[in-house]
Amino acid sequence: MRIVADENIPLAEAFFADHGELVRLPGREMTREQVRDADILLVRSVTRVNAELLTGSRVRFVGTATIGRDHVDQDWLAEQGIGFASAPGCNADSVGDYVISTLLLFGEEDGVALTDRVVGVVGAGNVGGRLVERLRALGIRCLICDPPRAAQESSEDFVSLEALIEQADVVSVHTPLIKGGDHPTHHLLSGSHIEALRTDQILISAGRGDCVDGRALSVRLERDPDLRVVLDVWENEPDIDEVLYRRAAIATPHIAGYSLDGKLRGTEMLYQAMSRHFGLPVRKQLGQLKPENWLRRIAISRRAPPQEALLLCTRTCYDVRRDTLLFERYRRQYGMAKGFDLMRREYPTRREFSTLRVELKHSAGAVREVLESAGFAIRAPRK
Ligand SMILES: NC(=O)C1=CN([C@@H]2O[C@H](COP(=O)(O)OP(=O)(O)OC[C@H]3O[C@@H](n4cnc5c(N)ncnc54)[C@H](O)[C@@H]3O)[C@@H](O)[C@H]2O)C=CC1
Ligand SMILES: O=C(O)C(=O)[C@H](O)COP(=O)(O)O
């Protein structure tokens, strides 16, 4: 078989090369000619997979190593009898790490404890739902806006988007891009929602850029530069609006989910789905192939105040400021569109919180509770 894979899918050779010739290509420029002779196509979010790309090709299976599927015309694939798989949840916790790092950063800047801010999560699926679990475990009050879930679960846990904006201190958007149906998300955060934000609120957007009206946001920020927005996803990536970029408090090039762990999980999920599709045995497992952790463990004293311990472990694993500074360096050196994609391609190795083993000399206590809630792995003596 011939397998065409995006160059940013790690370990694709290790998982797939046994099944045929593997060709690596830059995803954003993949052409019809390049994929015509492929049997399997493995992409990321930057490749539009549709009739235009695949008509007349040999492709029988398409996999996207991402959670998002808005770049794939799934109806067309189904009509053509082409198998399809995505990687649900693969990097959900990495996005959570990004948000927690951001909350800690603003907490430190403002001298506000994490638990003193109410966090509103818009879209509570794998990413938002898991984030809410971690934040609640940390003692943070969370509000959830997720109308599709609210319709099914008849729980009082859900609020409207308007109520969430009114009551939350942080509005964190994690919806997929959905253009039709009962709950479309294109410009879900519309001009009027953006106007309703208070200056002391924080807006985080890490779902898809088109879920937030970028033009309205830029206009609001011009008038109200103290409003803090954290943008990981943008309209028109990679050639994003430079004015909005400058007005954002934190700007990153769609890397919230870019931990090595999240990416590798995505590759493994595609390998499993491809094996199922072609009736092949699943011989490989990520555990056998995963690269070593550079930073394996950290020891925390029992006297460390829990919030200090949390800050220390979070910074050790991931600091969102690094990515905002790095993005600015890439932008200056290469220009916006090229810098955006180059930083993603050369992204430094980042590991999920769960890979850092925190050694405690005591089995219980507030430090343990806080670190476990945030998602770190704890090693402590048995009680
Ligand atoms: N910035 C990044 O690096 C990453 C971004 N993503 C994006 O995050 C999105 C969400 O990921 P998951 O949570 O894993 O997806 P999911 O499919 O598990 O959950 C999506 C949730 O959004 C809800 N939803 C749908 N329409 C809504 C609406 N109109 N208002 C509020 N909620 C609505 C759904 O009911 C569902 O609970 C992905 O589709 C992807 O676009 C995912 C991973 C990394
Ligand atoms: O999983 C998703 O959905 C994402 O947004 C990815 O983390 C983004 O990665 P790329 O596919 O854009 O490399």
From TrEMBL:
Identify the InterPro entries for this entry. D-isomer_DH_NAD-bd (IPR006140), Erythronate-4-P_DHase (IPR020921), Erythronate-4-P_DHase_dimer (IPR024531), NAD(P)-bd_dom_sf (IPR036291), PdxB_dimer_sf (IPR038251)
**What family does the database annotate?**
Belongs to the D-isomer specific 2-hydroxyacid dehydrogenase family. PdxB subfamily.
Q: Name one GO molecular function term.
A: protein dimerization activity
Q: Where does substrate bind?
A: 45, 66, 258
What's this protein's function? Catalyzes the oxidation of erythronate-4-phosphate to 3-hydroxy-2-oxo-4-phosphonooxybutanoate.
Organism domain of life: Bacteria
EC main group: oxidoreductase
Q: Which UniProt keywords apply?
A: Cytoplasm, NAD, Oxidoreductase, Pyridoxine biosynthesis
Biological processes, Gene Ontology terms: 'de novo' pyridoxal 5'-phosphate biosynthetic process; pyridoxine biosynthetic process
Gene3D superfamilies the UniProt entry points to: 3.30.1370.170, NAD(P)-binding Rossmann-like Domain
Which protein are we looking at? Erythronate-4-phosphate dehydrogenase
Known EC number(s)?
A: 1.1.1.290
Q: Where in the cell is it found?
A: Cytoplasm
A cellular-component GO term for this protein: cytosol
Query: Which positions fall inside the Erythronate-4-phosphate dehydrogenase dimerisation domain?
Result: 291-364
Q: Which residues cross the membrane?
A: none
Its annotated pathway reads: Cofactor biosynthesis; pyridoxine 5'-phosphate biosynthesis; pyridoxine 5'-phosphate from D-erythrose 4-phosphate: step 2/5
Q: How does it assemble?
A: Homodimer.
The active site lies at 208, 237, 254 (proton donor)
Query: Which residues of the sequence carry a binding annotation for NAD(+)?
Result: 146, 175, 232, 257
> Is Cytoplasm found in the keyword set?
yes
What Pfam families does the annotation carry?
2-Hacid_dh_C, DUF3410
Q: Which organism is it from?
A: Kushneria phyllosphaerae
- The answer to whether the entry has keyword Oxidoreductase is yes
Q: Which NCBIfam families does the protein's record reference?
A: PRK00257.1
